Each structure stands twice: as C-alpha cells, then as structure tokens.
Amino acid sequence: MGMAARAGAVIADPEFVQFHPTAIATGADPAPLATEALRGEGAILVNDRGERFMPAIHPDAELAPRDIVARANFRQIQAGRRVFLDTREVLGAAILTRFPTVSKYCRDAGIDPVAEMIPVTPAAHFHMGGVKVDERGRSSLPGLWVCGEASCTGLHGANRLASNSLLEAVVYGARIAEDIGGLEPAGQLAPFKGIEWDEAEGNRAEEVLRNSLAVQQLRGIMTNLVGVERHREGLQQALRDIAVLEAQAEQVTTAYLNMTTSATMVAAAALKRTESRGGHFRTDFPEPDPSWEHHTQMTLGEALSIRAAAR
Ligand SMILES: Cc1cc2nc3c(=O)[nH]c(=O)nc-3n(C[C@H](O)[C@H](O)[C@H](O)COP(=O)(O)OP(=O)(O)OC[C@H]3O[C@@H](n4cnc5c(N)ncnc54)[C@H](O)[C@@H]3O)c2cc1C
C-alpha cells in the first residue's frame, strides 16, 4: 500500500485496521494467536483479579464482535490489569488435541494451557483498507492491479468477518489473472533475464529492518496513538512524530519509507473520520455518525496536507 500510495494511487478506507482480541502475550514478535474458536467453545476472559469483565460490556459477553472484545481487553491493560483467556473449565486437557497449534504456542512460551490461563493482548491483525481497486482488481494507476490485503475492493466494511480475506484474495487473484490474460504489454520491454534472489538474505534484511530503532519507534507511535483507541490530539501527535522519524531516519530505505507512508495514510484518515465505526474507534467521537456511513478515499498528497496541518 505504501509503494502504491507513493506512486499516486488512490487508497481507500486506510483508517480501518482490525485488531485481534487475543494474541498470546508472550513477547514473541509477531505474537501468536489464541484462536477465537476458543471463545466459541466457551472460554472466558478474566483479569488478574479473577474478574470476568465481558458480561458487563456486551450481552454476548466473550462472543461480542471482535472490535468490542479487543477494546475491552485494551482498556483492562490500560488500567494496569493483565488479561487471560481461561480455557480450563470448558476444555481442560482436550485443548491439547482439539487446539494443538494454540497448545504448542503456549508450551513454547512455558505455559501449560491445561493447568494455566493464557495471557492475551489485542494485536494488529488485518487491514480492511488498501489500494482502491474496481471489480477487476484495477487500481487508479494504469497497469497496476492489486489483490489481497494490500487492496481495498470494497468487500469489507469497517470490520472484516473471519476468513473473508482469503476468499477475497482467491476471487480477486483469479479476476486479475483473467483481466491481464492476453493483454499486450505497453511499449517495448527488455527481455526478462531472471533475478538472483537469495531468500535467506532477504529474510535477514527484513529482520534487521524490523529490529531497527526507527521501526520500533514507528510501531510504538502506531500502537499508542493510532491503535485500538484514537483521539484527535493523539492522531495529530502521531502525524508529527511520523514526519520527524521520516526526516531523521539516517538511511531512509524504500521499505522504511513505505512503512512511514502507510502509517501517515492510516493516521490521517483516522483523524479525518470524526466518528467510531467497526475497527476505527475515536474516544472523542465514540458513536457512529450516519453522515460517515461510507467508504473513504485518500491520496498520499491529501494525507501529507493533513500531516502538515497537524504541526
Ligand atoms: C495470524 C493470522 C491469522 C489469520 N487467519 C485468517 C483466517 O483464518 N482466514 C482469513 O481469511 N484470513 C486470515 N488472516 C488474514 C489473511 O491471512 C491475510 O489477509 C492474507 O494472508 C493476505 O494475503 P496476501 O497475499 O495479500 O498478503 P501476504 O500473505 O502478507 O503476502 C504478501 C507477500 O509479499 C511479500 N512481500 C512484501 N513486500 C515485498 C516486496 N517489497 N517485494 C517482494 N515481496 C514482498 C511478503 O514477504 C509476503 O510473502 C490471518 C492473518 C493473521 C496475521
């Protein structure tokens, strides 16, 4: 999305980011997930005082929509509590055979899921926004088709129902292949010589970038100011901080610029949408506003104007 935005593509709904309510809080990066099927089985959320807090928040308690559960967990953690998923009564030892992946994640972190509760935290999970495409996967830039999570087809709203993302990727991948098939390449293309790609080297470069101070700082800004809950001052601060990081980064790699660009798009659109809906929650505008009941579009140019005005 960052690359396309820098090339001038129209981006749709960048403010809508979905948080998974129950990533396992072991400090692992990326955090492994405690699947929502566990709550479907009847697992409950409790804090470190043993209080079950979801029934007071939503009639469906732990089965409330993803964003509501994520926000409830976030607020517990903000208030200094720790949050746990308790599967012991409802699953007991059956968690080992019925949820082997979660059990393995727990064992890797030194947690016995049969006897202990699983520490959890919300984590960024899916971006409903992305490069705006039409029903053939065509973006606003001639010659650029986009599918998968980088795109915004309009299929998702302010939230995403589980598994719709993979279905969308498959459907649009096929549509794009069909649309491109048989097209003559524009102009003369140099003969393709193949690329020497060293996967281990690529992975190492990604690891170095991910662990760099600049990326850690960017992630901190996004988590604290553009995350589960947002408000005007925080979003303006985030935009100022992202601009400073971008200007200060000693060696601005393209990959880092793509990250700060994406961050700018998300924060600027979140500042513009003065209401709460789905994955986007503003503490200063906590209710949905019918006048905002629509998809949004933004170019990097507009996002940079909003960023400049936040100074
Ligand atoms: C933990 C987890 C569980 C999920 N579970 C589900 C689920 O059950 N059902 C569901 O529908 N969705 C699920 N999702 C969402 C779904 O997995 C993603 O939306 C989907 O995988 C996105 O596919 P993609 O091909 O668009 O992107 P990705 O799978 O992210 O693939 C992008 C690829 O591009 C590569 N890449 C990045 N930058 C460059 C570059 N500059 N040059 C070359 N290559 C590059 C990356 O290495 C990567 O291989 C889950 C997501 C997470 C994080």
TrEMBL record:
GO terms, biological process: 'de novo' NAD+ biosynthetic process from L-aspartate
UniProt xrefs under InterPro entries: FAD-dep_OxRdtase_2_FAD-bd, FAD/NAD-bd_sf, Fum_R/Succ_DH_flav-like_C_sf, Fum_Rdtase/Succ_DH_flav-like_C, NadB, Succ_DH/fumarate_Rdtase_cat_sf
Cofactor(s) for this UniProt protein: FAD
Coiled-coil regions listed: 228-255
E.C. numbers: 1.4.3.16
Keywords: Coiled coil, FAD, Flavoprotein, Oxidoreductase, Pyridine nucleotide biosynthesis
Residue ranges of every copy of the Fumarate reductase/succinate dehydrogenase flavoprotein-like C-terminal domain listed in the record: 258-299
Presence of the UniProt keyword Thylakoid in the record: no
One Gene Ontology term of the molecular function aspect: L-aspartate oxidase activity
Pathway membership: Cofactor biosynthesis; NAD(+) biosynthesis; iminoaspartate from L-aspartate (oxidase route): step 1/1
UniProt entry tagged with the keyword Disulfide bond: no
UniProt catalytic activity: L-aspartate + O2 = iminosuccinate + H2O2
Domain FAD-dependent oxidoreductase 2 FAD-binding: 2-166
Pfam families, per database record: FAD_binding_2 (PF00890), Succ_DH_flav_C (PF02910)
Protein family according to the UniProt entry: Belongs to the FAD-dependent oxidoreductase 2 family. NadB subfamily.
UniProt-recorded name of the protein: L-aspartate oxidase
Organism: Devosia equisanguinis
Lineage: Bacteria, Pseudomonadati, Pseudomonadota, Alphaproteobacteria, Hyphomicrobiales
Gene name tied to this protein: nadB
